Amino acid sequence: MDFRLAPLALATWLSAALTIGIYSLGNPVWFWVTAAVAVLLIQLIPRRLSNTEIDLTTLVVMLALGALLGITISLLRIYPLTYGPVAQASASNVVIKGAAVVTSDPIISNRKGQLDWANQEVLRITLRLESATIHSQTFDLHSPVLVFASEPEIVSALKTYIPGQKISVTGKLSTAPLGKPYAAYLKLLAVPEDIESPPRYQWLAADLRSGLHESLRGRSAAAKGLVPGLALGDSSALTNDLASNMKSAGLTHLISVSGTNVTLLIVLVLAVMRRFRANINLQYFIIVVALVGFVILVRPQPSVLRATVMGLVALVATFTSSNKSSVPALAVAVIGLVALDPWLAMSYGFALSVAATTGLVLFAPRIMNFLEVKTSKQIPFWVIQTLAVTVAAQFAVFPILVGLGSPLSLVTIPANMLAVPLAGPTMILGLLAALVNPISSHIGELIAWSAGLFAQMIAGIAHLSAGIDWLTIPWPSGKLGVVLSITMVSVGVHAAIQWRRLALESKSIFVSVLTAAVFLLWQPPTLSLKPWPPAGWVMVSCDVGQGDATVIRVGPNEAVLVDVGGDPDAIDRCLTELHIKKIPVLLLTHFHADHVGGLDGVFKSRTVSQIRVSPLGDPPLTTEYVSQVLRDRNQSASVMTYPEQFEINGIKFTCLWPSQLILGQGSDANNASVVIAVKVAGIDILLTGDIEPPVQEEIVRTIRPINFEVIKVAHHGSKYQSSDFAAWANAEIALVSVGKNNGYGHPAPETISLYELTGSQVFRTDRNGDIAIVVRDSKIRVATHR
Fold this sequence. Notes:
CATH 2.40.50.140, 5 domains, eight-stranded mixed beta sheet, seven-stranded mixed beta sheet, 30 helices, 26 strands, 18% strand
């Protein structure tokens, strides 16, 4: 294999990722993903240098050139976004008028506006500002902006727009976070007007995409979600349950178009061309046209662009009788794509795609040869081939998946072996349905129905695989997990290369160490202080089982209580041990039973002065329970919303959410949780209730970063988290209030990994018991108590 371009590609990719990451001080998760890719690939290069014409001097020069290229293209793209007229104007929330080109499909969500319970659709779409009048001065621009619109007339107009369409816009700018591929956010204030129609090819692509959805009308939820996902990379109709099952089974890569789809398309086109005995030049031309059309149809996702560029490079190499190795093709694809769009270097999907392809190129042939020798001749070759491809890809992406917090499960191997062969027919039939529907809707529906049958089988495999827990291998999360996974892959690669040369004793040691590493569990160190409560405590996260209860000390025997858990005895025990007699404010973030069910226990031998609640009385049963408990004690509650503040004995409480109600995007009650920032003893604490990604992202967009010392992780550490929110909070300590063996999968490994990789030390009530934040001599400590 020819590895001469690999150092250049690797240096370009990693330098672009680090430049954008360091510049924006954005999500630190990416630095660990970058490290995983770097170590995995760098340790392969020296092994192969002896088989190439590259020497050490050339290697250093190529690494330097790649780093220079990555840094240069990143800064050239970042600078105009940060210092251009649009970015500068966004700091003062200027209203602008201008002309823009639509660059994405609209994304629509349903909300309730400003707590008034009025139904409201919110739409976001990306535009490229071509010109704008700012402060009475007109600028010629090329500035991408992310647009938000909520007025019904504006939303209705934007729904009809197609990428490539030119429109006039009037809106208010606001600052976008550093490191994002936007110059600013833009909230439209008026209905846009058409300037130019979209190109004909974009209009045709949009018609074909909508036609596929029409063909699937009345089909199963699996068909509606998976067929567009496999054929077009459109996962908008995928249900949360199916998406969760696909992720647990390791089948998420099927939902978005990948290199497999491109390969199938090339094979199909070649088969048709050779059937008509087309000459070789015509075959290549038709393949290029088909690939370009496919990218336009499915939209230029990172995996599609990577696979398409690699396919084109391979075609050129074949056509010019050059080296036909896939490694140079992949290297050229990485360099070209990162140069075209440096933000691809920060894309997890792009990293997984390149790593998986690298695994297929380097490992799959070796695994296949091993299986052919060691297995029975009665096993069909396609089974061996599928197993080799699956194992090679999973092995290569393993460190990255650990960095992203995905659990390590052996079920992904049989799940992929069963599902991947079904993905081909689903994709081909889905594309055919989209192409045929404009000609004959009846035939299109028949083809879509056939695609739905294969999609239903994939959904069944995902559902069955997601329920198999015993194949999940315990693996450390966070930094330790990444380091161990990189070590395992590196040692595995070198052992495979040197296996025949190793003595039996060395082989035995390798297998023993590998087995021990697989079953190693990681527990973060804790500090246990006695007696309880520890001197200088300012906050305690109570161990109330599967639920939330947080105590903020505001004076001797006095505390503000945020949520009460689901067990009256558990919250009473925690408050009693903390010697709490007075509660000036009791805040119930929302009305789920695991946050309000212990309310009776709060009133045992204690006085409660004021009760504050979420503005959304949902679910009705637990809301009525709270109302009845308060009526029995002649108490009343009032709603708390943004931006209300109160202060007790110099301790400041600020409500960050809700400023509006977001409905239809997960759990309505969770997303109506009251989010509180607490300033106590010189530290900042964030209590998040059970908010889910839509609210987390809205907070990131609208509230300036505070850099909290402590965060109570939302929703007991469920997998529904925003990485941007974790980076925005930037907490030193993350607390997870969760019960043992809760049946919900809380906390999710990926959530623990997310917060550990953002620099937080994670503590959990299921393992640590009551968790106290102690401030003494301006230093923060953590104390635990069981």
